[in-house]
Amino acid sequence: MISELLQGLNPKQQEAVQAVKGPVLVLAGPGSGKTRVLTQRIAYLIEEEGVDPFNILAVTFTNKAAQEMKDRLEALLGPGRATALTVGTFHSVCSRFLRREIKHLGRSPDFTIYDSDDQLRLVKRVLRDLNLDEKQNLPRTIQNKISKAKNEMLDAAKFAQSKQNFAEQITASCYERYQELLLESNALDFDDLLMTTVQIFRQFPEVLAAYQQRYTYLLVDEYQDTNRVQYLLVKNLAAQGQNVFVVGDNDQSVYSFRGADVRNILQFERDYPTAQVILLEQNYRSTQAILDVAQAVIKGGKKQKYLKSLWTEKRVGVKVSLQEGYDPDDEARLVVTEIERLRRVGSYQLNDFALIYRTNAQSRALEEAFLARGLRYQIIGGIRFYERKEIKDVLAYLRLLHNPFDRVSLERVLATPGRGIGSQTEAELQRWATAMGVPIYQSLLALANLEQGETPLGLQVPFNTRARKALLSFLKSIEDLRAISTTFDLVGLIDALLEQLKLQEILRKEYGQDEGEERWANILELRNVAGEFTCLPREQQLATFLAEVALVSDTDSLKDQAEAVTCITLHQAKGLEYPVVFLIGLEEGLLPHSRSLDNQDTIEEERRLFYVGATRAKERLYLLYTFRRSFYGQWITSTPSRFLADIPPDLINRPAQPKKLVQPPENTLVPRNGPRLVAPLSNQGPSEPRRLNSPISSKGSVLSSGPTERIFLPGQRVRHQRFGEGVVVSSKLVEDDEEVTVDFLFKGQKRMLANLAKLEQLEP
DNA sequence: TCCGCCTAGGTTTTT
DNA sequence: CCTAGGCGGA
User: Fold this and answer.
1) Quick check: A739 pLDDT over 80?
2) What is d(CA A585, CA A335) in angstroms, rounded to the nearest whole number?
């Protein structure tokens, strides 16, 4: 009997799901159901091959993908069947692994995980410790270098060896001190989670052997986005059984900035000579019109032969639209207007729409347009929930309670709220702790003992009376909370903390009524999340909560059912799909991003980003760019993205702009909030070709010509100069125009060419 | 120590 | 444009 698990899969997919033991590489285009194949494969292994879920490790790209995989398995196999399965991101899997195994390095499992913000603070601390100038040694740059080194498995010593020039020696000494502070803080940063795991594997072969024995089946999604250390993790775990099943798409490799190396997937067969390679080329997501454009862009740059091509059985569908907005506000307005139109004439809901952009900053203009029209929207990313100041403040207390050596949290907590402990006192505390050779928190405890008359090391009692008082009262409040944490559950602890801090009042005072309430609401949301952990044994609640909170990303909490338009970056949109997609800001300097321009490889990565964005669309794809955009407060005339020039004109519609804008007179400032000097004129038929300054190419490019998109859909209200108002009955595209049948209020039905007749769109 | 004014510099993308 | 840090004054 053919397994039910194979039903609804095409032969290629079935082949992948049933692949025999041994290494398997599934090269799969966008929308090819690769994540589904991965999931079905796991179900198949358990159901048909009798594999114990305990022996399976599946690595996904986000926690959200992991959750979805678990849910799907539950649905396929029945409840409870797959609970022994290990699923998660590299980071979460390694984090769990280290809680168990870090003891081999003589470290406590109660380590704190430092996120990027914590990393940066720690680097700043390092620079101050080493008396280095923050101007000459930018903390961000140093943080990036350290992170990069860790992703390449270079520890501080190896880094110092490999870099000989003076500037890098400075970085090396920062790296060294940085690791010292991490160790002293009993903390691991994001990158350590992976690097330390591999180090343990190397140093303790018996530990590795145990995991190799356990995980006889290893599956990895988005393999093209693995970096060196992730590659080594996979390789180490797969070394014995070779049962490694990876899925990915080299055309969607967009994470080289965090060390991802597309060669990992391209050289899979070299790493695993017995590998089977399966190509999934059929696309189940997008229409042919969308796929054609996406393929044109991805192929545009390269001469090399492609590993795979894409095809679909879906209908050709609506042509992809390309449109210019005057500026980002106008661009946003065009999008919102189109969303409103599609909602009227089609059966779309708000969550069918996605606005995808290169940089988070672009979401600002969108936000304003949505607010102005009263459409619900959700912006993914930007300031992440767990990076909000008020949230981090509260988390800092919780982290300090769980791990008193956590240096970054201690410093944060000392400074907020103001309690009379400033940089002077802090520096002195630091000196004193160093003199005693203990971590800062212990030196505080020693200070308390000193107060009670003990003088352990015969050191002089430091600090003036005021500072000492402040420090001791601080210590007392922490110790009080610590006592509470040993009797109350997590929510009880948080309540006590909020009470002690008088946080609600502080927030209201600091940010005013409205924003104060908003931030307080965030705190309550955090408290809500904490509530989900109170079902655990009390001793585990805080640790589990903190580990979880450190590793979630924003897309993880993305709600599909939310009735709102989604605004999201290209990177975060990877793996998602929407019926209608607007790719905005398709301009030189933005996509490709200006920071990528000095290097051919990074420009090609930008091209892949375009490809990823375009292939998110199922039914309709809109490409937009602006005439001008402001950078650093300066208006710059935009140049349309070079990737647009790779699209054959006949694949694209350049709609007659329903709203035509005129350039403002020279040297006229357009006030940000005042009345716009550039008023949208009501439409008067086909617009004059907009002056495109520096078009990419004069012919063979979508930028120079193009027929019209179908904008007069049935139900659209229109006005004609002679016939007056009417409603569109039907329409179809013809050569260079759109043929519409209109039912006029007084003149009955007429058929005409929309642009030729200068037909005007009206609001409903 | 804290507050507020000022200026110089900065914008990719994320687990 | 915006914001984080530096600097002067209370």
Assistant:
1) no
2) 12
Cis? peptide before A665, omega within 30° of 0:
no
Say yes or no to pLDDT of A261 above 50.
yes
- Backbone φ and ψ of A455, nearest 5°: -130, 85
Work out the mean pLDDT of chain A and round it to a whole number.
Answer: 83
| Distance in angstroms: CA A634, C1' B10 | 14
pLDDT at position A447 is 79
pLDDT of residue A169: 84
Nearest to A483 by CA among A401, A398, A400, A542: A401
pLDDT (0 to 100) of residue A411: 85
Alpha helices in A631-764 (DSSP H): none
- Nearest residue (Cα to C1') for B10? A632
A630: nt with nearest C1' to CA: C1
Q: Active-site residue among A101, A222, A292, A646? A: A222
Q: What are phi and psi of A412, to 5 degrees?
A: -65, -45
Dist CA A146 CA A401 (whole Å): 28
Residue A410, both tokens? 């201690």
**Which residues touch A247 (CB under 8 Å, ≥6 apart)?**
A26, A28, A34, A35, A37, A38, A219, A220, A221, A222, A223
Residue A368: its pLDDT value, please?
Answer: 85
Is residue A579 reached through a cis peptide bond, with omega within 30 degrees of 0 on the bond before it? no
Please name the nucleotide lying closest to A672, CA to C1'. C1
The full DSSP string for A597-660 is TT-HHHHHHHHHHHHHHHTTEEEEEEEEEESEEEETTEEEE--B-GGGGGS-GGGEE-PPPSSB
pLDDT band at A690 (very low <50, low <70, confident <90, very high): very low
* Segment A86-95 mean pLDDT: 94
Nearest by Cα to A628 from A421, A372, A403, A327 = A327
Q: How far is the CA of A112 from the C1' of C6 (A)?
A: 32
Q: Give the number of other CB atoms < 10 A from CB of residue A282.
A: 18
Answer for the pair A612, A570: CB distance below 8 angstroms, yes or no: yes
Using pLDDT thresholds of 50, 70 and 90, give the confidence band for residue A700: very low
Determine the nucleotide nearest to A63 by Cα–C1' distance.
B15
Whole-angstrom distance, CA of residue A222 vs CA of residue A348: 30
Reported pTM: 0.82
Nearest to A760 by CA among A697, A683, A707: A683
| Gap from A468 CA to B13 C1', Å | 46
The pLDDT of residue A453 is: 56
Between strands A24-28 and A276-280, the pairing is parallel
**Residues whose CB falls within 8 Å of the CB of residue A70, separated by 6 or more in sequence, listed in order:** A82, A85, A87
Going from the C-alpha of A246 to that of each of A268, A298, A398, the distances in angstroms are 9, 23, 38
Q: What is the pLDDT of residues A297-341, one digit of tens each?
A: 998 866 555 567 778 877 788 999 999 999 899 999 999 999 999
Marked catalytic residue, from A341, A616, A618, A642: A616
Q: What's the distance, CA A498 to chain centroid?
A: 30
Find which nucleotide's C1' atom is closest to A609's CA.
Answer: B13
Q: What is the pLDDT of residue A233?
A: 96
Is residue A646 part of the annotated active site? The answer reads no
State yes or no: is A221 an active-site residue.
yes
CA of A140 to C1' of C9 (A): 32
Position A717 scores a pLDDT of 80
Q: CA A272 to CA A138: how far, in whole Å?
A: 42
- Would you say residue A124 has pLDDT above 70? yes
Cα A170 to Cα A126: distance, rounded to the nearest angstrom: 11
Take residue A153 and report the two structure tokens written for it. Answer: 């498995």
**For residue A469, how many other CB atoms are within 10 A of its CB?**
13
Nearest to A19 by CA among A278, A280, A281: A278
Highest mean pLDDT among A77-86, A202-211, A379-388, A588-597: A202-211
